[in-house]
Amino acid sequence: MKTNVPIDRRSLLGGGLAAAGTALLPAAAFAQAEGEGLHAIAKTRNLRFGSAFAWSRPGADAGSFANPAFAALLQRDCGVLVPENELKWQRTRPSAAAFDFDRLDPMIAYAKAAGMPVRGHTLLWHYSRWFPKWLNDYDFGSKPAAEAQRLLSAHIDTVAARYGTAIYSYDVVNEAVDPDTGGMRETSLSKAMGGPEQVLDHAFRTARAAAPHAELVYNDYMSWEAGNEKHRSGVLRMLEGLRKRGTPVDTLGVQSHISISKPTSSIAALVGQLTPAWRAFLNEVTGMGYRLSITEFDVRDRGLPADIATRDRAVADFAGAYLDLMLSYPQLTDVLAWGMSDKYSWLRSFEPRPDKEITRGLPYDVAFEPKPLRAAIARSLAGAPMRPAAPERAA
Questions:
Q1: Which of these, 38, 144, 97, lies nearest to 382 by C-alpha position?
Q2: Of 112, 104, 114, 90, residue with least CA distance to 174
Q3: Per residue in 111-142, pLDDT tens?
Q4: How much is the pLDDT for 327?
Q5: Is the pLDDT confidence value at 23 over 70?
């Protein structure tokens, strides 16, 4: 099993930089010229900015640290990284008895060499659709609760021990609430343990013991768009239950795959419609004592016209308003995009536009050129209220 890859920091910083393009931000007060990265801007407010990234073989055309053009974007703009898929059970747990870290190890090594702490996504995606087949079919035997606890503990303990303080924050549980009903999802694990609440409690308590240094996050995609009311209500009920049971959860991870799904004549009017209910939700979350994190930011642009200039302006305006609202909460310190370039966005395959045009929901286009969205992110980060100084994280 690979545990490391050779990394030359100077070549990573320099190689492929020309391919990344040059970002000229319009507000000179916070971005001097081409060199000001998004994380550098965020740090002036005691915030962090980062991105998802992937594994690939060296030089592959992928959103990977091993692609020099993409790595240049990470080096320029990011201070935090998160594996997009490589920590999920489908990748790391080929069977109940085996682990596979061949892809994750070099990713963590890259982040460590680049001086970037890592978010761990995810220790448990509590959704049968995304379980490996063996886990859906698993025979938990005559003592199912004990065997399910053993299986889950072994997974969390193994990951935490392997990566130590290189991972400073874990999405301990991902997407445990059914958005259609607001109820908790049932899986093979929850049926064995006696309910989804038992699964979540065990996962978070095990993670706290295994990684006492780490921020423990519940991560979900409830969003500010209309139609998410049941999902938001279900997440609030779940968070209240966790709090009452004393389950060690620090933060709500707000995925922030925000969406303009229908044509609109006014982004400002749309923002005005969405803001009150979303702010009420965030007020309830923070009122319980939870912190906030933007964990998977991008913009779905299906409802916008194909014209690039029109679409980019609307995406930037919508995203800027959303980020301004989120960053108005001092409990939020991390903003992570779900990738940096439209070329590798998951939306291209999971939610393509009806007109087949490439979605434009990330800071850089398919040619690694900065877009108005990048400038909007920079403005929101620069204009955020100052946070208290945070302790340096181990990388």
A1: 38
A2: 90
A3: 999 999 999 999 999 999 999 999 999 999 99
A4: 98
A5: no
3-state secondary structure of 185: coil
User: Measuring CA to CA, which residue among 199, 154, 194 is closest to residue 174?
Assistant: 199
Q: Return d(Cα 164, Cα 210) in angstroms, integer.
A: 9
Tell me the C-alpha distance between 294 and 50, whole Å: 10
As beta bridge partners, residue 173 has 218
Residues 25 and 36: their CA atoms lie apart, in Å, by 9
Residues 280-293, mean pLDDT to the nearest whole number: 98
CA of 265: how far to CAs of 223, 273, 276, 314, 317, in Å? 21, 13, 20, 10, 13
Place of tokens 């997974």: 155
- The confidence score (pLDDT) of residue 389 equals 82
Average pLDDT across the chain, whole number: 91
Q: Among candidates 170, 285, 283, which has minimal Cα distance to 237?
A: 285
First to last CA, the chain: 22
Q: Are 83 and 63 spatial neighbours (Cβ–Cβ below 8 Å)?
A: no
> Stretch 186-196: mean pLDDT, rounded?
98
CA gap 39, 86 in Å, rounded: 23
Task: State both tokens at 6.
Answer: 């050779």
Residue with tokens 């020099």: 68
The alpha carbon of 114 is separated from its chain's Cα centroid by a whole number of angstroms, namely 19
Burial class (CB in 10 A: 0-12, 13-18, 19+), 268: exposed
Cis before 275? omega within 30? no
β-bridge mates for residue 121, sequence order: 171
- How far is the C-alpha of 268 from the C-alpha of 264, rounded, in Å? 10
Strand partners, 120: 170
